[in-house]
Specification:
By secondary structure, the chain is α+β, with helices and mostly antiparallel strands. Helix content is 31%, strand content 37%. It has four helices and seven strands, in the order E-H-H-E-E-E-H-E-H-E-E. The protein has helices spanning 14-32, 37-40, 85-99, 114-119, and strands at 8-13, 49-55, 58-65, 70-76, 104-110, 123-131, 134-142. Strand 6 (123-131) and strand 7 (134-142) form a beta hairpin. It starts with 7 loop residues before the first strand and ends with a strand.
């Protein structure tokens, strides 16, 4: 893969881009991290605002903002990690949260990703807990 390839981030609705959003989440959460399919999909997708990162028209990342200001399902295809995709998606989700007049954003960060979120201004709150068999921490950011 050419490391200089550009990507773009778009806000999308679930129904518009369900196949692309599912393909990224299936690759990262279900196949790579072994999250059971039944735990990956929920009824909140239809009511959430989603971001979709694309490179040459191919889905490479996704995340969602729930109606309560909770950010979740942040995922970047392995070959694109460390190249700013997650940071760009998170910035877009935070902009949507601000436009929606949320006063804070919250998320459940996988423990290996805590430093990524700290660099974006989030703070850790509370003890470690398990979600879908993976260790997480609650993190928050005042908007």
């Amino acid at each position: 893969m050419n490391d200089n390839r550009a990507f773009s981030v778009h806000t999308v609705q679930w129904a518009e881009r369900v196949a692309d959003l599912q393909s990224v989440r299936r690759a990262v959460f279900v196949l790579e991290q072994h999250v059971p399919e039944a735990e990956e999909w929920d009824d909140r997708d239809a009511v959430s605002q989603h971001v979709l990162a694309l490179a040459d028209g191919v889905a490479i990342g996704t995340g969602r903002l729930l109606p309560d200001g909770h950010i979740g399902r942040m995922a970047v295809i392995k070959s694109w990690r460390g190249r700013g995709v997650g940071r760009a998606m998170l910035a877009t989700l935070l902009a949507v949260a601000r436009q929606s007049q949320f006063v804070e954003a919250a998320l459940h960060a996988q423990t290996h990703a805590i430093n990524f979120y700290i660099k974006q201004g989030f703070t850790v709150e509370g003890p470690e807990f398990m979600e879908a068999g993976i260790a997480h921490r609650v993190m928050r950011l005042k908007l």
